[in-house]
Write a structure and sequence with these properties.
Number of helices: 6
Strand content: under 5%
Helix content: over 70%
Radius of gyration: 18 Å
Oligomer: single chain
Shape: elongated
Order of helices and strands: HHHHHH
Length: about 150
């Protein structure tokens, strides 16, 4: 609301916006593919258990990545550390509840047959969160270089 409205003839999706969306999509894709590589365990247990572990790990990485990526979307060029985390408490609450529901979905035994999930270890969750931070770091690095170039 503090910025002036865009011009009437301006395109809704300009080149910079399209590039930004593609870049962020690639960052999320990279996190998901790294999760596939980490969680793929073809030699341990049965093939079905290995596939379930991989699917659960990738599913959790994608969900948590999307939740954390909400912070990067708050501003086009300012860092999330400049904008802050407390500016929108409802967003923070929604992200916290969504991640808690994701953990609950994976660890409740009644949900396993429905969603075909497998319980993840604490180390697996650590990896999920580390991989989920990667897209945020890539987007923040891009913002940093754009700010340096324009300064």
């Amino acid at each position: 609301m503090r910025r002036p409205p865009r011009h009437r003839g301006a395109r809704l999706l300009d080149r910079a916006t399209i590039f930004n969306v593609v870049y962020q999509g690639f960052a999320l894709y990279l996190a998901a593919m790294l999760a596939v590589l980490y969680f793929y365990d073809g030699g341990a247990g049965t093939r079905e258990l290995a596939d379930r572990r991989m699917q659960t790990g990738v599913f959790c990485t994608v969900v948590v990545s999307q939740m954390l990526n909400c912070f990067s979307f708050r501003h086009d060029s300012k860092s999330i550390f400049t904008v802050g985390f407390r500016g929108n408490l409802r967003l923070l609450l929604a992200i916290t509840v969504s991640i808690a529901l994701q953990v609950l979905l994976v660890h409740w035994t009644w949900a396993s047959p429905i969603f075909h999930t497998q319980i993840l270890s604490l180390e697996d969750w650590r990896t999920v969160f580390l991989l989920s931070i990667l897209p945020v770091l890539l987007v923040e690095a891009r913002k940093f270089f754009l700010r340096r170039r324009s300064a």
